[in-house]
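seq:
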Amino acid sequence: MTQSISRLDDLAEYPDWTHRPKLIVPGEVLVLPAAQLKWYDIRGTDQEPTPEVTEEAREFLRAECAAGRLEFHQEIGFVMNHRDGDKFFMIVCVWRQRDEMWSGIYFKDQEGFQPYVYKPGPLRATGAVTELDAVAHERRGWSRYLTSARDTAAKRAYLDDVCTGELV
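struct:
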């Protein structure tokens, strides 16, 4: 039997955390042998860009593809390279099976980018609230693509349509 919570006092309270706006900055499309991925760098509005980390992330994905550890199947998608304080998370998303978004998460440590290892249990981290703005933008763009002629012009229109600005 499911028991409901009658009071909200103790739910979703984060006393040691302040929600701050972030910037999403589109980058050059990452062209891989079997995929083209839009690129987004996400960082706090008070943080400087980190082009060296962006290039490290892009090189990591190229190397993963070359080594066969990351496979694409003639796909289009997007990458969110998210700076969260002094940590970096990279979420790689492709549109697969026509209307499904498939994703993988990586994090950066002192060794470089690594696959994110999920904690055991049925619930998984899927995205920070600011990342979901980009995901919503991409979902709308992919829906437009699916209802289009799905020709070269429609593919280019999808790749050219980027999320940008301040995310709250």
